Amino acid sequence: MVENGALAQAGQSLPTSTSVVVIGGGVAGVSTALYLARWGIPVVLCEKGRIAAEQSSRNWGWIRRQGRDVRELPLMIESFRLWQELNAELDQDIGYRQGGSTYLAETDAELAERAAWLDAAEGFQLDTRLLTAAEVDTLLGQSERRFKGGLHTPSDAY
Fold first, then answer.
1. Dist. CA 27–CA 94, nearest whole Å
2. Statement to judge: residues 102 and 78 lie in one domain
3. What CATH number is attached to the domain comprising 101?
4. Which of 1-15, 24-38, 143-157 has the lowest mean pLDDT?
5. Among 44, 59, 74, residue at a domain's last position
6. Which residue has the higher pLDDT, 144 or 65?
7. How confident is the model at residue 3 (pLDDT cuts 50, 70, 90)?
8. Residue by residue, what is the 3-state secondary structure of 40-66?
9. Considering the chain, what is the average pLDDT of its residues?
């Protein structure tokens, strides 16, 4: 019989009953199974291949607040807390890095959109700020492209 938290091998019998079966071992499935188990709810996680080897390993991997619909920000703020908590408590590196994100603006209209988002998100106490054209030039170094400015959130992660 496979014990709680163990990986099943060929020939081993699976539990005959459980409260929850989670199908898919990507970030969402593994996280769901982890929290159910923490809450004492019997759970079986089924994955056809390797954990996090499908879409979870092929997406861009951004864990960001910048540019989100403002209605999503409370969820993303909580998500950041959970990622930081997992990174600190697990015995292995999960790859969480706070490298920041920057959205550049080539036109005045794009810069106005970035500024409007920043105004709408003001109440969420993010570390996002509007960059001037000169700050973008400094950030990019020898780029031939010229930008009107940008939006930068140093604490966004991947």
1. 11
2. yes
3. 3.30.9.10
4. 1-15
5. 59
6. 65
7. low
8. CCCEEEECCCCCCCCHHHHCCCCECCC
9. 90
Domain count for the chain = 2
Q: What is the rounded CA–CA span in Å between residue 90 and residue 3?
A: 20
Residues 6+ apart with CB under 8 A from 87: 93, 94, 96
Q: What does the angle CA 154 – CA 156 – CA 158 come to, to the nearest 5 degrees?
A: 125
**Residue 105 lies in domain:** 64-158
Higher pLDDT, 70 or 61: 70
**Average of per-residue pLDDT across 38-51:** 91
> Confidence band (pLDDT; 50, 70, 90) for 126?
very high
Estimate to the nearest angstrom the gap between the alpha carbon of 63 and the chain centroid: 3
29 Cβ contact list (under 8 Å, min separation 6) = 22, 23, 45, 47
Residues 49 and 71 in one domain: no
> 157: which DSSP letter?
B
Element (H, E) at 67: none
What does DSSP assign to residue 9?
-
What span, in angstroms and rounded, lies between the C-alpha atoms of 51 and 24? 8
